[in-house]
Amino acid sequence: MSGRVIVAGSLNMDLIAEAPSLPRAGETVMGTAFHTLPGGKGLNQAVAAARLGSAVSMIGCVGRDAFGARLLEVLRTDAVDASGVRQTADAPTGIAQIVVSQGENCIVVVPGANMKLTDDDGASIAIASSDVVVAQLETPMAVTERLFARAGDATTILNAAPAASVPDSLLALTDLLVVNETELATLSGATLHDDSALADIVTAARSLQRSCKAVIVTLGRRGAVLVDGDRPPHAIDGHAVTAIDSTGAGDCFVGAYAAALATKRPGSPLAFANAAAALAVTKRGAAPSMPRRAEVEALMRA
Fold this sequence. Notes:
Elements: E1 4-8, E2 12-18, E3 33-39, H1 41-51, E4 55-63, H2 66-77, E5 81-88, E6 94-101, E7 104-110, E8 132-135, H3 141-149, E9 155-159, H4 168-171, E10 176-180, H5 181-188, H6 198-207, E11 214-218, E12 224-228, E13 234-236, H7 249-262, H8 269-280, H9 293-301
Helix pairs in contact: 1-7, 5-6, 7-8, 8-9
């Protein structure tokens, strides 16, 4: 294992209900199964990067409760350094209420202790000596900005999810911005939808380059596209897999990309992350669905 990734972000317990269809407003749907599984964008990305070959440290905050204790144990089980994760009595551990149907999902996140993250959390972790620093938008953005400012020569990756407006001061510290189409539309102001033309997606991504260095747009089954400087966009097709649960697929992509950069893996980090995310949707849950490196490389060879 080589290459150091620091993930600053959220840790949630996912409360997952499986159902024949996603409920509409005012509708009650009878579910078919229920699971309590570890998640949160930060934890998912940390577990993905660790399983894919990086040395990973996590910075975050959980409640002093049973969910928090379990999430810390999940990190340690996957060899993630959890010394930067604080337990607080001031808020419960964050949760995500998820309904899954036919490979799609809808999610409500209650952040809880995640929003108690402070500048002092993870102070013992030498951020500037890492290879990659990753963050999302499920913890205070002001704290993320100050962590990025301490990153030194490390590559900073901001997964601007869930969709929200991001200050230019944070984007200016971001080497790589990773978004899906919904998040891209929120940040760029462009009108986009699930089947928008690639040219429209690239145009919207380029409009964000005045603030950050490079942009990756994940496109689900359609793959992903990287827009970096004046170079032509690098688009890659998705993999044909049987989707069971898409929860955490975007997090898997980010963690895999970070691992590929940190470990200086030969070949395209975009292709590696794309294959990892495809495998993630073939299993239930978020963190539990993160693949191992051998699985990803087997899919790429196939």
